[in-house]
Amino acid sequence: MTMNLSTLDDILSGGGATAKFEAPGETYAGEIVDIAVRQVNDYDTGKPSFWDDGNPQEQIVVTIATADSTGPDDDGHRNVYIKGWGDQLKQFRQAAKALGRNPRAGDIFTATYTGDGEKKNARFNAPKLFQYEITAGSAGLSNLTDQPATQAPAQQAPATPAAPAAPAPDAAPAGEKSPNEKARQLIELGLDDNTIAAQLGLDIDVVGILRQTLQG
């Protein structure tokens, strides 16, 4: 994967606050609204960082749409920073390889903080380790769902067994797709049941039934 210094367009596009991973197991997931390569800033000086050979230290910045909005001035976009070297780059390359191409806007990106690596510098915390997953999507997926993708929970409590709910009637205002129609389209795009249920506010059992009807 070839990486170049970011342009002004790269810096100004996307926006969003930093996705904060505070404890192992925490996950952020959402539709990619921007992906760019930017130079790393030095931790102490805030100035651009360079390697000893003069080449810039670079990172991949993936901006995803989430429902983690803190107020009217927060669009819910969160930036996930991936170092352009070491284990983070290795994991990102593996995710891109599994996708079969470079990720782009519209794809669904998931980043999970899996633990800490070996601490090699007493001045800094141990490096955080991540696992990344990329699912093919299409640009403008958030327009289809009428709402941004949600932040995935770090852990889920066991669900109480219940009888599967029947799909709700395909009712929607004139000119708009019903939730079931949107769910069917997201199923065809390859999204999993949990993501679809969270984005559309549907019961996961309903999504499962819709998937069965498409596969049947």
- Major β-sheet profile: 6 strands, mixed
| Major β-sheet strand ordering | 1-4-3-2-5-6
Q: Helix segment count?
A: 6
Would you tell me the overall average pLDDT?
Answer: 77
As a percent range, the share of helical residues equals 25-40%
Low-confidence stretches: 1-14, 140-155
Q: Structural class of the secondary structure composition?
A: alpha+beta
Q: H/E series, N to C?
A: HEEEEHEEHHHH
Net shape? elongated
Bin the strand percentage.
15-25%
The value of Rg in angstroms is 19 Å
Beta strands, count: 6
Task: Pick out its properties.
single chain, 216 residues, alpha+beta, 6-stranded mixed beta sheet, 6 helices, elongated
Summarize the structure.
It contains 6 helices and 6 strands; from the N terminus they run αββββαββαααα.
Walk me through the structure.
The chain is of the alpha+beta class. 25% of the residues lie in helices and 22% in strands. The chain contains 6 helices and 6 strands. The longest helix has 14 residues. The chain is elongated, with a radius of gyration of 19 Å. The N terminus is likely disordered.
What is the element layout, followed by pairings?
Elements: H1 8-12, E1 17-18, E2 27-39, E3 58-65, E4 77-83, H2 86-99, E5 108-116, E6 128-135, H3 141-145, H4 179-189, H5 193-200, H6 204-215
Parallel strand pairs: 1-4
Antiparallel strand pairs: 2-3, 2-5, 3-4, 5-6
Helix pairs in contact: 4-5, 4-6, 5-6
